[in-house]
Specification:
Blueprint: H1 10-16, E1 27-29, E2 36-38, E3 47-48, E4 51-52, H2 57-62
């Protein structure tokens, strides 16, 4: 079974973990409604890239 030759220093450990931080999610703004949503996802109003793609429950009860 392999055994490490020497102990890892806190500096080396920190260098290895330097890229493990959380990144902020990429957000987009819908051109029609102005709503902010995650990239490549449908907004809560049912719009994707400025076009209505699904009917939302609010509109189904109205019409």
């Amino acid at each position: 079974m392999p055994v490490q030759k020497s102990r890892r220093t806190p500096s080396t450990r920190g260098m290895r973990r330097g890229h493990d931080k959380l990144k902020t999610p990429a957000l987009s703004k819908d051109p029609t409604t102005g709503e902010t949503h995650a990239r490549h996802r449908i907004s809560r109003d049912g719009y994707y890239r400025g076009k209505k793609v699904i009917e939302t429950p609010d509109e189904e009860t109205k019409g």
